[in-house]
Write a structure and sequence with these properties.
By secondary structure, this protein is α/β, with parallel strands linked by helices. Helices cover about 35% and strands about 25% of the residues. The strands form three sheets. The chain has an eight-stranded mixed sheet, with helices on both faces. Strands 3-2-7-8 form a four-stranded mixed sheet. A two-stranded parallel ribbon has the order 5-6. Strand 7 (about 90-95) and strand 8 (about 95-100) form a beta hairpin. Helix 1 packs across helix 8. It is globular, with a radius of gyration of 18 Å.
């Protein structure tokens, strides 16, 4: 029987990092970025079966990203390419970020390119917030969520908020809050909860987070990671990892339990 697949929908881009502020930076170190790609890589690194759902530019950077993903064990058979827009770039230096993605390949990823047949072997659908900006890709996310719910595929939302990619923090907050209830599982940080809900008190935040489809919330704080359901609470002191890696660990563990 074929194994189930974690489908990661969203962004893959090339990050160019510098230790100096962007205005003074002279050299950059490239690496693959984007929460969807990062989650797929982290899941594949544990031996999980995962596939990336995105669109890249028909350019050197796009093929560089897919080559690296494929080498790391991520299925790239559903990645689309376009010559209408370039692969997105994100510059990072001195704590400042500059995204070159006003019109980039992943934002033009349309619902008809995704289709619905991916759900046939899906273990779960995971997505972040970066492609929820006003674009065709936002509608692709809505279509994917409809397919997931109709097919009984659980949904994981790892917001991974990057305010610099949005017109305003209000637009980011309003959009993400609209998408939160569509997920079965949320993975976010204390800082992200504060940006979204204007509170760092999880007793207050959970009132808003555990609604709609949401069954489980993983909240990363300075002290460790909290896991909340509507009736239970667990805490792992000292546990710290990027949200994508944290989500990958949890999803892989859940998948292993389901198949054991």
């Amino acid at each position: 029987m074929p194994g189930k697949t974690l489908y990661c929908l969203g962004e893959a881009w090339l990050e160019l990092n510098s230790t100096a502020p962007l205005a003074a930076a002279k050299t950059f170190s490239p690496r693959m970025g984007g929460s969807a790609a990062s989650l797929a890589l982290a899941y594949a690194a544990q031996g999980g079966r995962t596939s990336l759902l995105t669109q890249l530019g028909e350019d050197a950077f796009g093929h560089r990203i897919t080559d690296a993903l494929s080498t790391a064990g991520v299925d790239i058979s559903r990645v689309c390419f376009t010559s209408r827009a370039p692969t997105p770039l994100l510059f990072d230096g001195g704590g400042e970020q500059l995204g070159c993605r006003t019109r980039s390949s992943e934002l033009l990823y349309a619902p008809e390119q995704l289709g619905a047949d991916w759900a046939a072997d899906a273990e779960m659908l995971a997505f972040s917030s970066a492609c929820l900006v006003d674009s065709p890709c936002r509608f692709t996310h809505l279509s994917a969520l409809d397919t997931a719910h109709a097919s009984g595929v659980p949904v994981c939302f790892v917001p991974a908020l990057r305010p610099t990619l949005w017109p305003s923090e209000k637009t980011l907050r309003d959009t993400v809050l609209q998408f939160l209830p569509f997920a079965d599982l949320l993975v976010l940080t204390e800082d992200e909860m504060e940006l979204l809900l204007d509170t760092r008190a999880y007793q207050v935040g959970l009132f808003f987070l555990l609604r709609g489809h949401v069954q489980l919330v993983l909240l990363q704080t300075a002290e460790g990671v909290h896991a909340f359901t509507r009736t239970a609470h667990a805490f792992w002191p000292g546990l710290s990892a990027p949200p994508e890696e944290l989500a990958a660990r949890l999803l892989f563990r859940l998948d292993a339990q389901d198949t054991s």
